[in-house]
């Protein structure tokens, strides 16, 4: 017997007619979501507008302008600290040298006027060559490689050899050659000095004020085409041989650390110094003032260099 399908009470028929379902809306929404995912935006969420992007860029630029100067200053302070350590190492090396050489400090430039092949920081075989630090008199006291450590803030003008390389190897530091790197005397306190010998440095016993007598400092020489080149002497304000005439050398102290120069004194302490005077003789074409060269100290004399 064939059974009839059950019917609902009160219904007019046992079958429901098919309904047409529209899929146009959901399909379009899925397509939009797929495009949003492909473009990197979240489904159902609009991307940044041009105005919003400009605001973000402006905020980033503002933060950079606030944060970058302190970061630059922090980096320069770190470089100045490294420079101070390098300069102190030179003082210690010179004092060790004196301890093994009868109390005499290292000579700054033996036979400079005749041979010009030796400096406190190196030796060379020809005047057309750069000095080799590993052959210098302080090399045994400067670590395993025997080289003077370069000041991290010293940026030299491009070298082309020859005259431009005449002080290569000093690391951007200069020695108080005028008073410590040779032996001088004078007849009276008012007389000019005369050089007795440039083959040895002065005796430590003659340095009466070691905490106030400069031994090494940041130095350079103004280059003709701009910038600076290495120069291994920290020149005083006046030539000792022409002190009565008050003849000035061109300045070599280099104020490269945020307008300060590292000064290493004969007792081993190091201090930053600000420029108080600059000058130019006209002998060199480079601009000493623009190159950051000059002198520190309140008095216009050689008091921070001499032995008295």
Describe this structure in words.
With 308 residues, the chain is of the alpha+beta class. It has a domain at 82-294. It is built from two helices and twelve strands. The protein has helices at residues 24-39, 50-99; strands at residues 118-119, 122-123, 173-175, 183-185, 194-197, 214-218, 221-222, 228-229, 253-254, 260-265, 270-274, 293-294. The strands form five sheets. A four-stranded antiparallel beta sheet has the order 3-6-10-11, with helices on one face. The protein has a two-stranded antiparallel ribbon with strand order 1-2. The chain has a two-stranded antiparallel ribbon with strand order 4-5. Strand 7 (221-222) and strand 8 form a beta hairpin. The longest helix is centred in the N-terminal third of the chain and has 50 residues, at 50-99. The termini are far apart. Mean pLDDT is 85; it is low at 8-16.
């Amino acid at each position: 017997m064939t059974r009839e399908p059950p019917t609902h009470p009160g219904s007019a028929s046992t079958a429901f007619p098919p309904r047409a379902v529209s899929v146009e809306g959901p399909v379009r929404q899925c397509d939009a979501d797929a495009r949003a995912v492909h473009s990197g935006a979240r489904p159902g969420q609009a991307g940044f507008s041009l105005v919003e992007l400009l605001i973000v860029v402006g905020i980033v630029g503002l933060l950079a302008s606030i944060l970058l100067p302190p970061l630059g200053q922090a980096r320069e302070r770190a470089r100045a600290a490294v420079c101070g350590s390098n300069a102190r190492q030179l003082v210690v090396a010179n004092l060790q040298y004196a301890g093994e050489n009868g109390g005499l400090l290292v000579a700054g430039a033996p036979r400079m006027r005749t041979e010009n092949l030796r400096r406190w920081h190196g030796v060379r075989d020809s005047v057309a060559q750069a000095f080799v630090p590993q052959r210098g008199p302080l090399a045994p006291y400067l670590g395993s490689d025997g080289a003077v450590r370069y000041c991290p803030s010293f940026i030299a003008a491009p070298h082309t050899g020859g005259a431009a390389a005449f002080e290569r190897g000093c690391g951007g530091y200069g020695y108080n050659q005028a008073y410590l790197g040779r032996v001088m005397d004078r007849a009276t306190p008012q007389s000019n000095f005369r050089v007795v010998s440039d083959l040895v440095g002065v005796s430590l016993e003659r340095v009466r004020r070691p905490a106030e007598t400069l031994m090494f400092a940041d130095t350079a020489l103004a280059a003709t085409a701009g910038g600076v080149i290495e120069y291994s002497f920290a020149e005083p304000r006046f030539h000792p041989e022409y002190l009565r005439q008050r003849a000035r050398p061109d300045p070599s102290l280099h104020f490269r650390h945020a307008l300060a120069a590292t000064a290493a004194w004969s007792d081993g302490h190091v201090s930053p110094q600000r420029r108080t005077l600059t000058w130019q003789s006209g002998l060199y074409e480079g601009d000493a003032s623009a190159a950051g060269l000059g002198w520190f100290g309140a008095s216009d004399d050689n008091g921070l260099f001499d032995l008295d």
